Amino acid sequence: MSQNDPLFVSQSNRKGVYYFLLIALVIVFLPRVIMFFSHEESFEISSSEIAVLKKKQEWKQKTYYHKSYRSKKKQYRSPATKFDPNLYQIKDWMKLGLTEKQSAVVVKFCARGIYSNDQLKKIFVIPEELYSKIKDSTFYPLGKENKFDQIVPREIIRKKVLVDLNGASQEDLEQIPGIGPFYAKNILKYRDRLGGFKSKEQLLEVWKMDATKYEEIESFVEVNKTLIRKININEATAEEFKQHPYLNWNIANSLVKIRNKKIRFNAVEEIKESVLMDEELYDRIKHYLTL
Question: What CATH number labels 163-227?
């Protein structure tokens, strides 16, 4: 092949190509050869070492948990001076460590007047830890625990009202702290259906009356049982029986059928002959029945 041929490659150029290919092959295969002849170093760990590492990890987790718990735990504070709980406001209770919502509940309970640490302790949102910090710093100028000769401002002296649930008007009920027109109307409406209250606890059966509201007002009410309106079981119709909130149509109808069969009831407890009248229901309804 002549030098003028376009495909002619000189001897020196061929050698350069050979050297280039050789170097490329070395670069590609040398790492593989080295890895093939090298011995991988094995890493082994004993079971005892695993146990030690596990304990260290558990210890770290426990340490983190306790630190986190201590940081989140509520810190309650003792009051700086003696105080009357009746005069404390929401911000004052919050300074002792209660939340705003808890403080509002305490203020609401104190609005009716509390007169001892026993009453204060019954406020369910006050934790035992806080109570133990404040119990020796409280005083009650209006109550039995008054140990200080202090002049009590007239504006904090609360008028103690005692209202008979069975004889009260709406206006009478609205005198009770925490009872407005809404609750007064509901109490009167339920009293009319019952025929009267036999116990204060029946207020919990009034629509929208919950335990918190009941605790607010129960010390302001009393019950005169002589004013209870009773149903004559020998004269009432099934419809009249059914009007009572403790009785439904099936029970009312069964009482009339038993009476017709007996001609008349000779004792109130004879209504227990109805298979629908269990002991619990009888204990509730017997106060509203007569011969």
Answer: 1.10.150.310
